[in-house]
Amino acid sequence: ERKGIGRLRRLPARLLSGEDIELLANVELPAELPLLLRNGAVGIGLLRSEFLFDEELPLPDEDGQYAVYAGMVSDMEGRITTIRVLDWGGEKGIARLRQLGLPAGDEAENPAMGMRGLRLLLAHPEILEVQLAAILRASLIGPVRILLPMVTSTNEIIAAREHYERVAKRLRRRGVKISADLPPLGIMIETPAAALTTDALVRQADFLAVGTNDLTMYTLAVDRASSMTSELYSPLHPAVLRLIRASADDAFRSHRPICVCGELAADARAVALLIGLGIRSFSMNAAALPRVKRMIRSLTLDSCDTLCRQAMLTSDPIELQKLVRQFAV
Ligand code: PEP
Ligand code: MG
């Protein structure tokens, strides 16, 4: 098995019909890098930076964050590292802000719909700017992209970009040699609003990453963390699929790179379906990479297209799940 994986690592993630697929890894901790490299990821598609913002410690400063990003970018040896800025969500963000003595607003009835992700960063731009400065410095070591979480409108991206440019200017004034072309600034598509207005968002975003975990939650009105409703929580719901398609079609039309990086990308059969939608880039937990690559190497584009066409015809989640489960290569 180990030997098989060693061989697989060096083989391309290519369909039998010849199309290349990009397989990236989601990372929550730097300790996952060896597994990612062993399993042949061509880069990091999503670095969740929350681990840096430890519950017990004060907010990390620019130098502290820089040291971590620089170490990871260097370990990636020229492969892309996509760093998502802090995505505190729901109760977690509010509780932590309080703990730090920062304004946190009132107690929200629905924290998942309140101050989270980019909204929270724009309300506390000092946190965003310190993180962007650290990432920009690390981008001198190797290729980096920056990802904004929980976007719902163009204004938010424009505001984030203003901070980004201000931070770059400030660093240059300090003598840090940042290139004129800043690293790409992309957005997560994880709300129905973002999926349905991708045509507008792409004018401000350099690349897109579909986060199917939150997109599923916000589309189906099912909490991703609740065990009471876990049977209802499935990204393989026609509504979620149609949103992904709408977003992907807008991305293709505007020639913006798009990647699927939620848990759905770790489901090899779902990946076949998404290839049928036109997606060519996936980011998943590193442990799932060999399984997905093996599947990809056994598929033809025709078989993916057929699965996708059938899938898009169904409006019934149970039927869709059955169709994908029964998909035989
Ligand atoms: C997602 O929402 O699908 C995602 C990739 O981000 P996270 O799981 O970190 O919320
Ligand atoms: Mg998310």
TrEMBL record:
Phosphoenolpyruvate binds at R48, R84, N213, D214, R224. Mg(2+) binds at E190, D214. It catalyses: L-histidyl-[protein] + phosphoenolpyruvate = N(pros)-phospho-L-histidyl-[protein] + pyruvate. The active site is at C261 (proton donor). Its EC number is 2.7.3.9. GO terms for biological process: phosphoenolpyruvate-dependent sugar phosphotransferase system. It is found in: Cytoplasm. Its cofactor is Mg(2+). Keywords: Coiled coil, Cytoplasm, Kinase, Magnesium, Metal-binding, Phosphotransferase system, Pyruvate, Sugar transport, Transferase, Transport. The keyword Cytoplasm applies. GO terms for molecular function: kinase activity; metal ion binding; phosphoenolpyruvate-protein phosphotransferase activity. General (non sugar-specific) component of the phosphoenolpyruvate-dependent sugar phosphotransferase system (sugar PTS). This major carbohydrate active-transport system catalyzes the phosphorylation of incoming sugar substrates concomitantly with their translocation across the cell membrane. Enzyme I transfers the phosphoryl group from phosphoenolpyruvate (PEP) to the phosphoryl carrier protein (HPr). Belongs to the PEP-utilizing enzyme family. This is Phosphoenolpyruvate-protein phosphotransferase. The chain holds residues 260 to 588 of 588 of the full protein.
